[in-house]
Design brief:
This is GGDEF domain protein. It comes from Calothrix parasitica NIES-267. Pfam families: GGDEF. The protein has a 4-stranded antiparallel β-sheet. It has a single domain, classed as Alpha-Beta Plaits. A hairpin with a 2-residue loop joins β2 and β3. The chain contains 3 helices and 4 strands; from the N terminus they run βαββαβα. The protein is globular and about 45 Å long. α1 packs across α2. Helix content is 50%, strand content 18%. It is an alpha+beta fold.
Length: 107
């Protein structure tokens, strides 16, 4: 899970158009870091993106999160930071996507 912190302040300072451009730029960075064809990046909430990395353990997910953090910092966007959370689930028949999202949000 990737959450852009203080985005409302950014919108208030720079306006909706600049904030939308900034959001697109951040989304592109996140998407470029999820490199495999099976990886999925989706906007989850207004300032959050879910990054789904199938068949990836904690170590692999941490590497992707670190790459996202590094690439985000290269953008040098004033007054914005990115919170990253990792959650991992072993697939089973009763796999619950809500439980995975809750685990990521509570980290």
């Amino acid at each position: 899970m990737c959450e852009i912190k203080d985005f409302e302040s950014h919108t208030n300072a720079y306006g909706n158009q600049k904030s939308d451009e900034c959001l697109i730029e951040i989304a592109q960075v996140i998407n470029n870091c999820a490199k495999r064809a099976i990886d999925l990046v989706a906007r989850y909430r207004e300032h959050q993106f879910a990054v789904i990395l199938p068949n990836t353990g904690d170590e692999g997910a941490f590497c992707v999160a670190e790459l996202i953090r590094t690439e985000f910092e290269k953008l040098k966007i004033a007054n914005l930071s990115l919170n990253l959370a990792i959650a991992n689930m072993i697939p089973r028949n009763n796999l619950d996507a809500k439980a995975l999202i809750a685990a990521a949000e509570n980290r």
